[in-house]
């Protein structure tokens, strides 16, 4: 059975005229597996939902944004980006919204896992450890 995720991609314009450039806000996953990895690690803010919750997937995307950044999601010019089926089979439904997010003020919820491996000790890690605006 595939997994389902919903996400939000904030965007903003920087500069004027010919210098005008589109930037999008992405996040880096927290936890020990990603601490020294950048390539292929960054993504949009997203979170899983159950197929029976499909009637309000946008609400899932907005909730996940709040939980993973500690900020209110931008909602200006909200547009559906559709659905993408990832190589793993996971379905990702996403929206873009124009607005600003403070990348330096990202404060994420946490998850627990056994760390170090086979230690029997539980450690808490942020789901997202940082955010960035990229062109």
Give a summary of the structure in a few sentences.
The chain contains 1 helix and 8 strands, in the order βββαβββββ. With 135 residues, it is mainly beta.
Per-chain topology:
Layout: E1 4-14, E2 21-29, E3 45-49, H1 57-69, E4 76-85, E5 91-98, E6 110-114, E7 122-126, E8 128-134
Parallel strand pairs: 1-5
Antiparallel strand pairs: 1-2, 1-3, 2-8, 4-5, 6-7
Description:
The chain has one helix at residues 57-69, and strands spanning 4-14, 21-29, 45-49, 76-85, 91-98, 110-114, 122-126, 128-134. By secondary structure, it is mainly beta. Strands 1, 2, 3, 4, 5 and 8 form a 6-stranded mixed sheet that branches. A two-stranded antiparallel ribbon has the order 6-7. Strand 6 (110-114) and strand 7 (122-126) form a beta hairpin. The longest helix is centred in the middle third of the chain and has 13 residues, at 57-69.
Question: What features would you highlight for this structure?
Answer:
single chain; mainly beta; six-stranded mixed beta sheet; two-stranded antiparallel ribbon; 8 strands
